[in-house]
Predict the 3D structure of the following.
Amino acid sequence: MTDLPGPSPKKLGLVIDLDTCVGCHACAVHCKEWNSGGVAAPLTDIAPYGADPDGVWFNRVHSFESGRGAEGRTVHFPRSCHHCETPACVTVCPTGASYKRAEDGIVLVNEDLCIGCKLCSWACPYGAREYDYDSGVMKKCTLCIDRIYNEALVDEDRVPACVATCPVGARHFGDLGDPDSHVSRLVESRGGYAPMPELDYKPVNRYLPPRSRPAPSPAAALAPAPTDAEGILGWIDRLLSR
Amino acid sequence: MHPALSVIVFTTATGAGYGMLFWLGMFAVANGLPPDRYFAPASLLLSLVFISAGLLSSTLHLGHPERAWRAISQWRSSWLSREGLAALLTYIPALLFGMGILVFHRTGGIWALFGALAALGATVTVICSAYIYRSLKPIQRWANGWVLPNYLALAAMTGALWLAALAAFSGVEPPTIVWLALTLIFPAALLKLAYWNYIDRTGSASTAETATGLAGPVNLLDPPHTAENYLLKEMGFRVARKHAARLRRIAFAAAFVLPFLLVLTGLFAGHSARLALFAAAAPLATVGALIERWLFFSEAKHTVTLYYGAARA
């Protein structure tokens, strides 16, 4: 049933640190690699070596300019499913293919029930769902459900592929429903936030904002030399100004 | 949003079909169906053809049409599911109503009750269709109060125009149906103007800043991929946006202005001229409605575009 389960105490999700992300796209590539053979497989590519390649990815890294001029900075922004608490992608599904797990809050698609009407992708404000033109069904991030519960893997690999692979440790996985988990403490200490709160989808994932840094002041360095400098530089200045 | 032809045809054709069914049922209740051998059977059959062709068309854009039957299962949460269920349930009173007309040549008593139930089913189905779009929060141009009245008014108008055309063919003197069709053009046209006015004057609450949560102004430096993906193909801007202003004028003329003039002229024309004029008005209005529906999709903007360089959706 695409009715939502009641709020679950366990809310598995990602915390993504926009301060440390370097925009290397390794998370997106490992996601693609793992999920090409996982439960959501295949992540179809159409004409991958052609002039106009297309394909399904669960994770996309956008690079934004935030602010302007001296205040501006480049922010790399990985975008994937937020496993929302009130996901309209689930409730609009006419067949019951989309569902939210009661036990951990993960939002999944049952590909055997999906009719490929695409309405769920319209209902998602974040663009988390991508349609597979080849298999005719909708695909989305599974939070690597086939890794995190996979007892054949060693503990450190039982996290989503994007988290396991991040070279700078910008991605964190855990239970955001537990206020004492390491991800919840990160969110608390760094002021983690969810995007587009005005639409009230209640995302579980959080972004950690870029830290504020003392702004460099190129203006001062580029200004003409002061005429009242002291010390040896002042003496040279006075000497050369004659 | 990508204007899938099958969905445009579906909403326009079922709109006209359910509009016809609604008015047929209402006229049966009011005992006002013209006492003609051909008018009611022909009207009912045409409305069922429109509805059935539209429903079949809607399955064409599915990835797995053979699983379409599953779509009626989630009526508790999904407007798409409710629409499918309402459409199927409406066939029951519609076919019984049709049996009265075609087999027993009766539209009174119990048959009028079936007509009333068919009219109710038609209304509910169109409401569900509108709410599929009305309920999508990421698309501000759909998630507003103008969508439902526009769907209802256009269905009522196109349905009445087709009935007026069939009335002319049946040789019925200008009956109430023709005056009704003429009158219904006004609310449909005004509601469309109000909708266009609304979407031109408002924007989404979501911006590139709320979508990223970053300090503004936010603009895209590097997109995540160099070729178009599903998101951009499905939710990016399309051809019709470029010609939106001209297409709006064409849609308005074809859907409202010309049908009004044709029907009005037909009222004062001789029999054969009236036949031609009424017969032209209904298909012309339907073509106008198709263009209007195309615009409804292609002018709609999705919040995902905020991640691809749009400042507002």
